[in-house]
Amino acid sequence: MVSPSSIRLEACSICQLKCPLCPRTTGETFKIIGNGTLKFENFKSLIDSNPQIRKVELGNFGEVFLNKEIPQILRYAYEHNVETTIDEGANLNDVSDESLEALVRYQTSILRCAIDGVTQSTYEKYRVGANLKKVIANIKKINSFKAAYRSLKPVLIFQFVIFGHNEHETERAKLLASMLKMKLNYKLNFSENFPVQNRDKIRALLGYSDRKEYMEKEGRHYMRNQCYEMWIRPQINWDGKLLGCSRNFWGFYSENVFQNDLIANINNEKISYARDMLMGLKPLYEDIPCKNCGIYKSLAKNNSWITEAELKEHQKHS
After folding, report:
1. What is the rounded average pLDDT for all residues in the chain?
2. How deeply is 56 buried, as exposed, middle or buried, from its count of CB atoms within 10 A (0-12, 13-18, 19+)?
3. Does residue 160 belong to any structural domain of this protein?
4. CB within 8 Å of 269: residues ≥ 6 apart
5. 211 belongs to a structural domain
6. What is the rounded distance in angstroms from the CA atom of residue 206 to the CA atom of residue 105?
7. In a domain, 273, yes or no
8. In angstroms, what CA-CA distances link 224 with 29, 90, 162, 205, 238?
C-alpha cells in the first residue's frame, strides 16, 4: 500500500504568461486541469483528514501566487507542522507583499523562480508577457523579509532553462543569481525547436548539450524522476482530481480526493495498474494516462522500467 507523507497539490492552474512550450499555452491542459485555484477550506480539510502528510508542494501548471488565499494556506500548513515548497516554480510577476511575507513568516522551505534571461529582451522571448524588473523587485522584497525575520527560508532558486536565444547569458546569470542571494540551477529545454547553438559550451556546463544527448549518455529519460511521484508524492489538482504525477494532463485516477479518502484513492485499481505499468509488470492499458507520456514511451522503448531500488533511493533524498 502506498501511504506517502508528501503530496503535490496545485495551488493555482491559471497563469498570466504565454510560454511557448507550456501545455497551458497550447491549450492541452484545459480539458482535465482547467482554470482555477485551490480553496483554503479544501486544503484545511485535506490536512486535517491526513495527519500523515508532512510536506506539500504547491506548484504545477499555473502560477501559485495568483491564488489570493496563499497566505492563509501557508499559515495553516506552518501551524500544523506541514512543510511547504514551491519547487515546481513560480514566475513572480504578480504577487502581493502579503504573500511574499507569508513565504518567510511561515517558513516555506524552497521557492524556485523561472528566470531564463538577465535582460528583458532575452527573458521575454520565452517568458512571454513577463517583466524582469518586477520579478527582481519581488525577489528583493523576499530577501528583505528574510532579513527582518532573520530567516534562511525560503531557499531561493534561480532556474535558467537553456535555449539558443539565452545561452550567451549563462555566465551573467551566475552574477545576477549571486546578487539576488539565489542558488543557480541550469536546466535543459525539452524541444528540438529551441536548440542551443554552442553545444560544446553547454556540454561543458552541464555534461550534455540537450536532452537527447542526455538520453544517449545516461540511457534514461531526463525527467524520469517525475514517475516517482506516483509513489512518493502524488499530484492532486486544484479541484481535487488525482493526477498521480505532475506531467499528467490527459486523464485522472480519481475525480475528487477532497470528498473521498485520500489513501483509498491513491491505492485504487486504476493508479495501482499505472504503477505496475511503469515498472513493466503490466502491459499498456488504453485507459491509463501514462500511455500518452513521453517518459513512459521511453521506459517501454528502452526496457528501462522504474525499480523498487531507485524509488527507495530517491525517497531517502526527498
Report:
1. 96
2. buried
3. yes
4. none
5. yes
6. 35
7. no
8. 21, 22, 19, 21, 24
State the CATH number of the domain containing residue 174: 3.20.20.70
Residues 317, 88: Cα–Cα separation, whole Å = 17
CA dihedral 65, 69, 71, 72 (to 10 degrees): -160
pLDDT, position 290: 97
Where in the sequence is the domain holding 123, given as residue range(s)? Answer: 6-261
H-type helices in the chain, by residue range? 40-49, 70-79, 97-105, 120-126, 132-149, 170-179, 199-206, 211-218, 229-232, 262-265, 269-278, 294-302, 308-316
Per-residue burial over 190-199, b = 16 or more CB atoms within 10 Å of its CB, e = otherwise: eeeebebeee
Residue 273 and residue 290 in contact, taking contact as beta carbons nearer than 8 Å:
no
Q: How many domains does the chain have?
A: 1
183 belongs to a structural domain: yes
In sequence order, what are the beta bridge partners of 185? Answer: 159
DSSP code of residue 152 = -
pLDDT digits (tens, 9 = 90+) for 93-133: 999 999 999 999 999 999 999 999 999 999 999 999 999 99
Q: What is the pLDDT of residues 166-216, one digit of tens each?
A: 999 999 999 999 999 999 999 999 888 889 999 999 999 999 999 999 999
What's the predicted TM-score (pTM) here? 0.96
Instruction: Determine the pLDDT at residue 145.
Output: 98
Taking only the tens place, the pLDDT of each residue in 59-80 is: 999 999 999 999 999 999 999 9
pLDDT at 25 over 80: yes
Where helices occur in 50-119 by DSSP H, the ranges are 70-79, 97-105
